[in-house]
Amino acid sequence: MKFIFFEKERSVWSSLVSLFLFFYLLFSMISISASQVFIFLAIISFLTLLILEKQKFIFPSFFWLIIGYAFFSLLSSFFSVNPGISLADSRELLLFLIVPAVYAGFSRKEDLSLANYALLASASLSSLYSIFDFMFLAAPGERASGFMGHYMTQAGLLLLFSCLALSKIVFSRHKTRWLWAGALLLSLVALSLTLTRSAWVGLVVAAAIILFLYKPLTLVIIPVLMGLFFFLSPQYMKKRALSIFSLKSYSNQQRVQYIKAGLNIIQEFPLLGTGPDTVDMVFQDPKYELSAEARRNVHLHNNLIQIAAERGIPTLLLWLSFMVWTFISLTKLIRNKSPSLRLLTGASLAAVAALFSAGLFEYNFADSEITMLFLYLITLPFSVKRIERKESKSTQ
Predict the structure, then answer these.
(1) What confidence tens digit (pLDDT) does each residue in 254-265 have?
(2) CA-to-CA distance for 348 and 354, rounded, in angstroms?
(3) Interacting residues of 284 by C-beta distance below 8 A, sequence separation 6+
(4) What is the percent of the chain where pLDDT is above 70?
(5) I need a surface site. Which of 27, 252, 264, 339 has the fewest CB within 10 A?
(6) pTM of the model as a whole
(7) Could you give the CA distance from residue 191 to residue 145 in angstroms, rounded to a whole number?
């Protein structure tokens, strides 16, 4: 480990950033507390590097919109219906510093590649535990949650990992792609056991993006695999999959309630929303016509509705601009002839599309474990591009 991360030409703080990112990824799907400790150590090391060594604060262009999102979120917190709760919740805005830390934290492709193998190990162990727990320990009807404690968090993480794993399999010609194929198979089994429909939708969208970038004709594989999954899956999975299209499903009826309540809240609090982490306090009012069970939830099951309701329409527009700008910036990188860059760009494009599509049915952007991995994945191609540009200048 020392040989890989600590080089003579690199400073200690620069080496620590990549080292802590490695350990974050290693624990990202195994331990929430450990992963958060290591990601904050990476951010602290990065900030120390900036201050002590007077490094430039560099980042991909999409980060400007994240800064705007963070600024309006803080403004919303100060004018919140409960500023104390909102300001406490705003501490999670520090997680956005993952973007510049990942962008500048890796100086070699080898370090970045090793970090991705740490993610592979984490996902494999998490998937194995999920399957074992579901088969031998879980109560009847219980959904697989792995080490995360909640099936939706587990599903979101497995979804994002699947974007990287599938891209590795499709675009890589290295023999290690079979390791990624094995990990992907495990993660898909574990993902199916979470019974999380929003993640299933996100997976289909992500697969479509990657296969289209590879060879558009391969898109025909998707409906074939979906059909095989449906006919080979047990009855409870078939029922869960079919419920996606049914308004008679109670959870779908709840989502309709949340959309109506959310739109009413947005109409009442259009500029700055109710304040981060306070929407559930506001929709307790009977005038929003939520059922007693729906009022026990803490969010509105939709990224767009939730962000606008708790942070205001301007903040939502910044978030949408961030997603669109990131997607467009990545599509420009996909033209690059570098195999490693193309591979990671495909994974990042899939991750953006997957998070957005799944987020139409779940407030996944508020889940810090999912957000951390998402920010890591979408920054990787830009980090590789920076490394390649630096290597190109050094050889001239």
Answers:
(1) 899 999 999 999
(2) 10
(3) 295
(4) 96
(5) 339
(6) 0.95
(7) 9
